[in-house]
From TrEMBL:
Organism: Gasterosteus aculeatus aculeatus (three-spined stickleback)
Source taxon at top rank: Eukaryota
Protein name: Erythropoietin
Keyword Secreted annotated: yes
GO BP term, example: pronephros development
UniProt keyword Ligase present: no
């Protein structure tokens, strides 16, 4: 049984989402790796994800966003539901489409370093889990740096919202990785000289790399995550 309660307080929307995704014995339904009793969040950052989402996915997204806040502990259970990543991929594609249709105020002020998105499956499968995770975490960090740089140079306010969503989603993916017992990544002091990277000079190219990286290496890492394999065994 699911019930929602929405209250406006100034510019903030408060969601009170009560859910039961678990059997009485505590086993998850429909492959969902989390049992949700109640989620209470009050923050304008979450208003954009409330529409056209089923309640289970909405609860997962709200919790992942909350866990992405600095200083909070890792989630108690692995987040293995790929609907979360699929939602982030959709928002990345929305940002790419918005950029392609933008007229003025949508250019990058300087080139940015981005991760390679092409996957050589022989090379990928020969890497151990730690190496794969570090490659993905480095790529997420590069994309976050690149999108933050783009945010400062873009003047189109509609694009600001798309870029902010993308940056927030990258932080949320890091929270998902923490839930999978993947060691937190320590970024380098500079992106110069990093292996497996290249430089882009246009905002469209940056957002295309963002989409391809999520649906490629990030998805592969989540599909093969040991914590998820153990959780469903």
């Amino acid at each position: 049984m699911t019930s929602t309660d929405e209250r406006w307080t100034g510019s903030q929307l408060r969601f009170v989402i009560r859910m039961s995704l678990c059997h009485s014995a505590g086993e998850p339904q429909n492959g969902t790796m989390l049992c949700v009793d109640a989620v209470r969040l009050e923050n304008s950052d979450y208003t954009g994800i409330a529409t056209q989402l089923d309640a289970g996915l909405l609860a997962l997204l709200l919790m992942v966003l909350e866990w992405s806040r600095p200083g909070l502990p890792s989630p108690l259970r692995p987040i293995c539901d790929l609907r979360v990543l699929n939602h982030f991929m959709k928002e990345a594609r929305d940002a790419e489409v918005a950029m392609k249709s933008c007229g003025e105020g949508c250019t990058m002020s300087e080139p940015v370093t981005v991760p390679q998105t092409r996957v050589d499956f022989d090379v990928w499968e020969n890497k151990n889990g730690l190496e794969q995770a570090e490659e993905v975490q480095c790529g997420l960090w590069l994309l976050q740096q690149g999108l933050s740089s783009l945010r400062t140079s873009v003047t189109d306010t509609a694009l600001h919202s798309h870029i902010d969503n993308c940056i927030r989603n990258l932080l949320s993916i890091n929270a998902v990785l923490r839930s999978l017992n993947i060691q937190e990544y320590t970024p380098p002091t500079s992106a110069t000289g990093l292996e497996g990277t290249w430089s882009v000079t246009s905002a469209t190219d940056l957002l295309q790399v963002h989409v391809n990286f999520l649906r490629g290496k990030v998805r592969l890492l989540l599909l093969d995550a040991q914590a998820c394999q153990q959780d469903v065994s």
